[in-house]
Here is the input.
Amino acid sequence: MDTQAAENVRQRHLPEMLKIPHVVNMGIEFKDSEIIFNVQVDKEANVPQVERMVPSKIEGYDVVVEPVPTGVLWYGYHSFIKPASPPDGQ
Here is the structure.
C-alpha cells in the first residue's frame, strides 16, 4: 500500500470535496488491506445526500461517506475541517 500516493490524491481532491454541502473532511482508511477515502459529513441525516454528490471512486480509490463520529477531536486535521453548515434560513 502506498499511503503517500493516497495522501497526495487526498490533498488534490480535498478542496473540491469541501465545497459539497455538509462535507467536513476527507480522510484515509484501511479496509480489507485496501486504502479507501472516507468522506465525512456533519451528521447522519446528510449521508444520503452527500453519497449522491461524491464519486464512488477517486483516482482508483473507493470512496465511502460516513458521519463524523461524535466526541472525536481531529488533531492534525483541524486546518482541513470547515464549520458545519448553518441551520436553514441563516
About this structure: The chain has a mean pLDDT of 83.
